[in-house]
């Protein structure tokens, strides 16, 4: 019989699939500093700053190699929009909650949910 003993604490190795406790709401440093900010950037680009991102992309396509010079204004507007959402505490809480729900579902089922791509 093979032992399933692990060196990880139970909250990281327990659960129905050995992926961690689905009800655990604590966050590791990598989650708070890398994964949640990544989710925030993606959501801001695809849900909150659609117009700004589209304007910048259009400018870049039209300007080709001169985009660095010609698209400064669009880039500044887009960065400003993204930064405002990135620094919004309510948005951070919303994204943290979404991340925790996705992690809980993964730990419960063992199936990763693919991120939506536009």
Automatic annotation (TrEMBL):
Subcellular localization, as worded in the UniProt entry: Mitochondrion
Renumbered residue ranges of the record's region Disordered: 1-24
Matching InterPro entries: Cyt_c_biogenesis_Cmc1-like (IPR013892)
Stored Pfam families: Cmc1 (PF08583)
GO cellular component labels: mitochondrion
Keyword set, alphabetical order: Disulfide bond, Mitochondrion
Main location class: mitochondrion
Top-level taxon of the source organism: Eukaryota
PROSITE patterns, alphabetized: CHCH
Family, as annotated: Belongs to the CMC family.
Name this polypeptide is given: COX assembly mitochondrial protein
């Amino acid at each position: 019989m093979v032992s399933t003993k692990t060196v990880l604490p139970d909250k990281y190795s327990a659960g129905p699939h050995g992926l961690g406790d689905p009800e655990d709401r604590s966050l590791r440093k990598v989650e708070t500093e890398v994964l949640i900010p990544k989710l925030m950037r993606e959501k801001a680009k695809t849900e909150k700053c659609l117009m700004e991102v589209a304007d910048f992309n259009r400018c870049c396509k039209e300007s080709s190699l001169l985009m660095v010079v010609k698209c400064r204004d669009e880039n500044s507007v887009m960065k400003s929009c993204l930064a405002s959402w990135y620094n919004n505490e309510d948005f951070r809480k919303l994204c943290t909650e979404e991340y925790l729900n996705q992690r809980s579902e993964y730990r419960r089922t063992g199936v990763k949910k693919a991120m939506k791509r536009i």
